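Bug #77: duplicate submission created two jobs. Keeping one. Sequence:
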Amino acid sequence: MIELKNNPADNFFLLAGPCVIEGEEMAMRIAERVVKITEALQIPYVFKGSYRKANRSRLDSFTGIGDEKALKVLQKVRDTFGVPTVSDIHSAEEAEMAAEYVDILQIPAFLCRQTDLLVAAAKTGKTINIKKGQFLSPLAMQFAADKVVEAGNKQVMLTERGTTFGYQDLVVDYRGIPEMQTFGYPVILDVTHSLQQPNQTSGVTGGMPQLIETVAKAGIAVGVDGIFIETHENPAVAKSDGANMLKLDLLEDLLTKLVRIREAIK
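Kept job's structure:
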């Protein structure tokens, strides 16, 4: 498994950053801010940013600044701040390309059953974070993990990101966290995507960011290994998932509270 800095015994780790790389300057500013916060709180940190958004509701939605350009931004974040990076891949052909720039390859929830994608990701030798499909039970994620392991890669993480609850809502079943932990892999709670409200008539996904703290606290309370939070300096103008992202100014206070909960349940 990938080595993380600031790793005191039994603390949770954090995957955080913008939904998509909108440019180098914004990514570097966000990374610098989060690195400073996580170092002070001794939270192991992975910078998250998608180099391309392949799953958008509308054809005219922003998808990225160009694959190679965005991947080089992720590489610069890693080299500048000394933190690992994570980004989504969407096809088997992307796995090798992305692996040259990032440390963790993330499998989107909608694609978690795609055998060719999982096997290609596994063969890069990188850590693979598989997001649980909104349509799957937690226990069914064993089979997704098995595909990666059987392809020769034991570096697996699993992420809970909510379960479809009707056409326009998601719900987190916290029983799934300890269930997936029985497989022997770190389990992450994707707080912000769990608060999406998909399939809006406008074609733009909605969200409930006012519940980010509630969902995150509950995840830490049940013993999740890691927390995933998309954050932006100004979510109102973010080019993707602005409706459910955390405003960057609120991150330090939230993480401080989560560290206290973690200490209390030890």
